[in-house]
Amino acid sequence: MPLLSVPKEVAVGTAVLGVAFAAGVLAGKRYPSFIFGTPSGMIRKNSPLRQYILDHSLREHPILKKLRLLTADHPHGRMMVSCEEAQLMANLAKLIKAKKVIEIGVFTGYNALSMALVLPDDGRVIACDINEDYAKIGRPLWKEAGVEHKIDLRIKPAIQTLDELLANGEAETFDFAFIDADKESYNEYYEKCFHLIKKGGIIAIDNVFWNGKVLKPRKDDLAAQSIHRLNEKLLRDARVNISMLPVGDGVTLAFKL
Ligand SMILES: C[S@@+](CC[C@H](N)C(=O)[O-])C[C@H]1O[C@@H](n2cnc3c(N)ncnc32)[C@H](O)[C@@H]1O
Fold first, then answer.
1. Which CATH number covers residue 110?
2. What residues does 153 pair with on adjacent strands?
3. How many CB atoms lie within 10 A of CB 97?
4. Which residues form a coiled coil (predicted)?
5. Tag placement on the chain: N or C end, fewer CB within 10 Å?
6. Is 226 in the pocket of ligand 1 (CB under 6 A)?
7. What is the mean pLDDT of the chain?
8. So what's the pLDDT on residue 44?
9. How far apart are CA 101 and CA 191, in angstroms?
10. Distance (Å, rounded) from C-alpha 39 to C-alpha 227?
């Protein structure tokens, strides 16, 4: 006796679809987004699965949570790093016993605070941004968390700060870099961070999916073009080992060899 009784047409139709799908997978075909979710295969920000991930893995410091909620009310709040991504980077920083961190693109400072919380007392986050107003939102919370002294905010174009660090003899002294500012400059940021990072250090590059636009970067989308070019370059960059992870809008971790 069948466990489920379905009309014959439905059963046949389902079987045909199943065989076609399996054959397609075996042939390496791509399937439309309704099968896997978003075009880039990301987990949607407000999906039940994302909520499940947060409910079962996020261990957010109460002041980080305060900053996240404060940032969510900001008109540009969507620019904030995803909290699970910040937690992943803080865990990695702790694992490699990081002391010196560079962050390119600070916004309200959620990730800067997350990093500062796991650094030793003499650790430093060199936090680069061009807009001091954003950091003014986070700074009182950095202070409340007792880590303001670990965050060295440099308000000027990040390229300039990176060049100053290099000119100051700080090449190969950093443990971790997070690239999360203007996408058109990603390659330059990567190259300069590569020189600043020690062997065994980590460079994390955010938004490597660019909301799926890297799949087919339009000619007039300079950000998508730039990210896609760097993704292609990293695949072949023998100076690093890499992992591209579907966390947030995609993050690539480059481990300097
Ligand atoms: C995506 S947000 C950074 C988010 C942040 N990492 C966080 O933890 O939420 C990008 C930031 O890059 C900054 N930015 C844009 N162009 C820049 C540049 N040339 N140099 C430094 N910062 C820049 C913006 O002001 C903005 O605050």
1. 3.40.50.150
2. 127
3. 11
4. none
5. N
6. no
7. 89
8. 86
9. 16
10. 17
- Does ligand 1 come within 6 angstroms of the Cβ of 158? yes
- 29 within some domain: no
Measured in Å, residue 177 CA sits from the centre of ligand 1 at 14
Atom of ligand 1 at shortest distance to CA of 157? 20
Name residues of the chain where pLDDT drops below 70.
1-42
Distance (angstroms) between ligand 1 centre and the Cα of 86 equals 15
Q: Is residue 1 domain-resident?
A: no
User: Domain limits at 140?
Assistant: 61-256
Which of 129, 192, 209 gets mutated to test ligand 1 (max ligand atoms within 8 A of its CB)? Answer: 129
Residue 244 belongs to a domain: yes
What's the pTM?
0.87
Pairwise CA distance, residues 169 & 152, whole Å: 18
Does the Cβ of 134 fall within 6 Å of ligand 1?
yes
Distances (CA, A) of 72 to 22, 69, 78, 95: 42, 5, 7, 29
Cα 34–chain centre separation: 24
Does ligand 1 have an atom closer than 6 angstroms to the CB of 125? no
Please state the domain count of the chain.
1
77 lines ligand 1 (CB under 6 A): no
CA of 107 relative to ligand 1 center, distance in Å:
5
b/e code 50-61 from CB counts within 10 Å (16+ = b): beeeeeeeeebb
Instruction: Count CB atoms within 10 A of the CB of residue 191.
Output: 12
* Closest ligand 1 atom number to CA of residue 178: 6
CA of 107, closest atom in ligand 1: 27
Query: Would you say residue 54 lies in a domain?
Result: no
Give residue 105 CA to ligand 1 midpoint distance, Å. Answer: 3
What is the ipTM score, two decimals? 0.99
